[in-house]
């Protein structure tokens, strides 16, 4: 996967629940889901390329029906490199 596709940029607070996540803003999630729902895999999984700071990685976002938005997991290597901790606010770009 590469940076081809539609770019979306947002800021979000990092939170922890067995993994570190950020939740996409609900309006952004609605927009993405309207365009890409047919491309979702099991459990609402959608492949993306993500970037924060100087780090880029291939990953996926998952649609969480309870919170009505996509969740983006933050890998340990990315958190360490970018000095991201729980409750940090981060700027994220994703390519869908």
Characterization of the model:
- This protein is α+β, with helices and mostly antiparallel strands and 96 residues long.
- The chain has one domain: Beta Barrel (Elongation Factor Tu (Ef-tu), domain 3), CATH 2.40.30.
- It is built from 2 helices and 7 strands.
- The protein has a 7-stranded antiparallel sheet.
- Strand 5 and strand 6 form a beta hairpin.
- The mean pLDDT is 94.
The structural domain count equals: 1
Q: What is the rounded Rg?
A: 12 Å
For the largest sheet, list the strands in their spatial order.
1-7-4-5-6-3-2
In terms of DSSP E residues, the strand content is: 35-45%
Number of strands: 7
Structural class: alpha+beta
Q: Which word captures the global form? A: globular
What is the CATH top level name? Mainly Beta
End-to-end gap: 10 Å
| Overall pLDDT level | 94
Key phrases:
alpha+beta; Elongation Factor Tu (Ef-tu), domain 3; 96 residues; 19% helix
Write the layout of secondary structure elements.
Layout: E1 7-13, E2 15-16, E3 20-23, H1 26-36, E4 45-52, E5 55-64, E6 69-73, H2 76-82, E7 89-95
Antiparallel strand pairs: 1-7, 2-3, 3-6, 4-5, 4-7, 5-6
Short description, anyone?
With 96 residues, the protein is α+β, with helices and mostly antiparallel strands.
């Amino acid at each position: 996967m590469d940076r081809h596709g539609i770019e979306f940029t947002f800021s979000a607070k990092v939170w922890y629940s067995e993994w570190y996540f950020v939740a996409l803003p609900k309006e952004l999630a609605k927009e993405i889901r309207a365009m890409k729902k047919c491309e979702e895999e099991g459990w609402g999984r959608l492949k993306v390329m993500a970037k924060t700071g100087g780090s880029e990685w291939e990953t996926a976002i998952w649609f969480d029906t309870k919170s009505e938005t996509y969740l983006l997991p933050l890998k340990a290597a990315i958190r360490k490199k970018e000095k991201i901790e729980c409750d940090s606010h981060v700027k994220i770009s994703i390519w869908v």
